[in-house]
Amino acid sequence: EVSHIGYETITLIKPTKGVNPLVLEIELKTKSTNLQEVEVVAPKTWVRGDTTFFKAEAYKEGEERKLKDLLLKMPDFTVDDKGQMLYKRKPIEKISLDNEEIFSDKTELLLNNIPVHILNTVQAIENQSSNKMLKGLDGQNKIFLNLGLTKDTKLKTAFGDGELGLGNR
């Protein structure tokens, strides 16, 4: 019997005559094993340090149009009596788009105008400070959101609402 890891085992029965040494030449064939199909499913929500990531596509049900609609379907997001968006009962201070802080302090504007079809991930970042150098050290514990955009919309997307009028005067 001849065997080796990764090769098929061969068993030979060969009678030997006399005292002459027996010389055999054996060629082992590689053993192939087919693995069953595996489907990897990413979680809808995961945590890394002080950042909670939400996969936007997992929370879309079809009728959401703006960011605020989508956030309310994600865990720990609520709206208080004054209409302010909260995460874990703390107000959201800033919203950035792919880590760019354009209009980041205009949270109401962004919540009501960013369309959900351009979103890939929503990151809720806890223990933030207005001063980036003091993040997690000065006790402000602010909540910031970072919106990860889909690759195909990063350069060609515009958002907002508009009106059009037509008349003869």
Measured by DSSP, the beta-strand proportion falls in: 15-25%
Shape: elongated
What is the β-strand count? 7
**Secondary-structure-derived class:** mainly beta
Q: How much helical structure, as a percent, in the residues?
A: under 10%
Q: The biggest beta sheet, please? A: 7 strands, mixed
Order of helices and strands: EEHHEEEHEE
Main sheet strand line-up: 1-2-6-7-5-4-3
The value of Rg in angstroms is 31 Å
Low-confidence stretches: none
Measured between the Cα atoms of the first and last residue, the distance is 99 Å
Q: Can you give the mean pLDDT?
A: 83
Number of helices: 3
Indicate the topology.
Elements: E1 45-48, E2 51-55, H1 56-59, H2 67-71, E3 77-79, E4 85-87, E5 90-97, H3 107-113, E6 119-128, E7 142-149
Parallel strand pairs: 5-7
Antiparallel strand pairs: 1-2, 2-6, 3-4, 4-5, 6-7
What does this structure look like?
The mean pLDDT is 83. Strand 4 (85-87) and strand 5 form a beta hairpin. With 169 residues, this protein is mainly beta. It has helices at residues 56-59, 67-71, 107-113, and strands spanning 45-48, 51-55, 77-79, 85-87, 90-97, 119-128, 142-149. The chain has a seven-stranded mixed β-sheet with strand order 1-2-6-7-5-4-3.
